[in-house]
Amino acid sequence: MGSSSSRNPRPLIKEPWVQINWGRGDRENDLQFIRNYKPRADNQQLRILLHGPVGAGKSSFVNSVCSLFQGRVCTSAMVNNDVGDSCTKKFSTYRFEKDDGQNFYPFVISDMIGLDNTSRRNRNIHVKDIKEAMKGRIKDGYTFNPECKILKEDRHFNNSPTQSETVHVLVCVIDATTATELNPEVVETIKDIRDEAANLGIPQVAIFTKIDKACPKTKQDVKDVYRSKLLRSKIKRFSKKVGIPVSCIFPVKNYTEEIKLTNDIDVLLLSTMRRIINIGDDFLNKRKD
């Protein structure tokens, strides 16, 4: 028989593959960066679009970001406990209020219906709707129809989108517990969406949610997230499947069961938001130039 060490390989990497400073001071630095963020052009708004499979945690991510700025656990976006269906039926854009209660941050997060394992035709419609959303052609309140993409005659179709209404960074939200077990049709759809975004020049990243459920070590201590061999393997395998670089895949823990904010969850969320804003801002400035 082998040794106990061979039967139970160490689940943690000695050195994290991404360095995160977990101190409260570093949390405040990232939060201050986001508070001070301002696009180069006056009245410009940076738009982040979330997409991904049903039940991945898109709405929970919106709630978690809102919680960071409000200093308490928030539920701005509806969340469905039943992962068998998408709670988000309409195209919804969320703004985040500043501390003064009168102004909003110059970035928004748009959320749309989740992708499920339906027919090829319905998946193609999903891709077409995301393409229109990336172009800024879908207005808030549009109810997605799995049988038909948005029509130009629809009152929620935006014929003349402004630069603020177009998407500046596309975020694929993935449940870490099922990231390596995605249906091949779902993987193909994610790749099709990536192709459409690439044609528009839009940068793309991914967020891994539910890391505490995917990795026992991370559940014990979220600070071990970038030392987890299990999460590292899942991220690498997902990256290889869909083509999103490992450096653009960010593991996070959403506020789903907690009643109070905690420093370590905040740090992970804030560092992810800072990276997303920087990526979107680079694209915004490049397009403007």
What's the short version?
The chain has helices at 4-7, 24-36, 58-70, 120-134, 184-199, 211-214, 216-220, 229-242, 263-288; strands at 46-51, 92-94, 107-111, 169-175, 204-209, 249-251.
What does this structure look like?
The chain is α/β, with parallel strands linked by helices and 289 residues long. It is built from nine helices and six strands, in the order H-H-E-H-E-E-H-E-H-E-H-H-H-E-H. The longest helix has 26 residues, at 263-288.
| Straight-line N-to-C gap | 65 Å
Order of helices and strands: HHEHEEHEHEHHHEH
Largest sheet: 6 strands, mixed
Number of helical stretches of at least 4 residues: 9
**Overall mean confidence score, pLDDT:** 90
Which sequence of strands runs across the widest sheet?
2-3-1-4-5-6
User: Considering DSSP H and I runs of 4 or more, what fraction of the residues is helical?
Assistant: 25-40%
**Global morphology:** globular
Low-confidence stretches: 1-8, 80-84
| Strand percent estimate | 5-15%
> What is the number of E strands?
6
Instruction: Supply the helix-strand structural class.
Output: alpha/beta
Rg, Å, rounded:
19 Å
List keywords for this structure.
289 residues; alpha/beta; 6-stranded mixed sheet; 6 strands; 38% helix; 10% strand
Topology:
Layout (H helix, E strand, L loop, with lengths): L3 H4 L16 H13 L9 E6 L6 H13 L21 E3 L12 E5 L8 H15 L34 E7 L8 H16 L4 E6 L1 H4 L1 H5 L8 H14 L6 E3 L11 H26 L1
Parallel strand pairs: 1-3, 1-4, 4-5, 5-6
Antiparallel strand pairs: 2-3
